[in-house]
């Protein structure tokens, strides 16, 4: 015997991410407040989205309005990431300037960026080619 599909709507996991818009220009005095905002978003009221791998809690930081990148921006992002990790989550950058990404790479910091595949994962929509003579793995 088999039964029909369950009644009602299917259960769908909420993938809404918490978003923190970072205003520019960056001032050192704003760092503590922005770190507190990340902690709050991850800890509860904001819900800290579960959009990372394995349900990891993520706060999306919209960095499009930060202005020209500099060491103050690098310092802020490093502190936000550290705060997020201490709270059991991560930050993900939205709309970063290519110069900011280059500067972060130069100082040895890597961040998740919205719309980019994570390291070790293929880009969305890309499938690996299979040769017809390859043995099954």
Structure description:
The protein is an alpha/beta fold and 137 residues long. The protein has 3 helices and 4 strands. The protein has a 4-stranded parallel beta sheet, covered by helices on one side. The chain starts with 17 loop residues before the first strand and ends in a 24-residue tail after the last strand.
Strand count, sense and barrel status of the largest sheet are: 4 strands, parallel
- Shape by Cα distribution: globular
* SSE sequence, one letter per element: EHEHEHE
Please count the helical segments.
Answer: 3
Low-confidence stretches: none
- Report helical residue fraction: 25-40%
Rounded Rg? 19 Å
Task: Tell me the structural class.
Answer: alpha/beta
Let me know the number of strands.
4
Keywords:
137 residues; single chain; 4-stranded parallel β-sheet
Topology:
Blueprint lengths: L17 E4 L9 H13 L13 E6 L8 H16 L2 E6 L3 H9 L5 E2 L24
Parallel strand pairs: 1-2, 2-3, 3-4
Summarize this structure briefly.
The chain has three helices and four strands. With 137 residues, it is α/β, with parallel strands linked by helices.
């Amino acid at each position: 015997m088999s039964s029909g599909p369950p009644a009602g709507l299917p259960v769908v996991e909420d993938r809404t991410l918490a978003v923190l818009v970072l205003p520019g220009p960056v001032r050192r005095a704003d760092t503590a407040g922005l770190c507190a905002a990340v902690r709050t978003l991850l800890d509860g009221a904001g819900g800290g989205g579960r959009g990372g791998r394995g349900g990891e809690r993520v706060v999306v930081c919209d960095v499009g309005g930060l202005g020209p990148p500099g060491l103050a921006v690098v310092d802020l992002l490093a502190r936000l990431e550290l705060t997020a990790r201490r709270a059991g989550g991560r930050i993900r950058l939205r709309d970063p300037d290519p110069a900011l990404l280059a500067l972060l790479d130069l100082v040895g910091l890597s961040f998740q960026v919205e719309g980019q595949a994570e390291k070790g994962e293929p880009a969305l929509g890309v499938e690996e080619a299979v040769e017809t003579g390859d043995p099954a793995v």
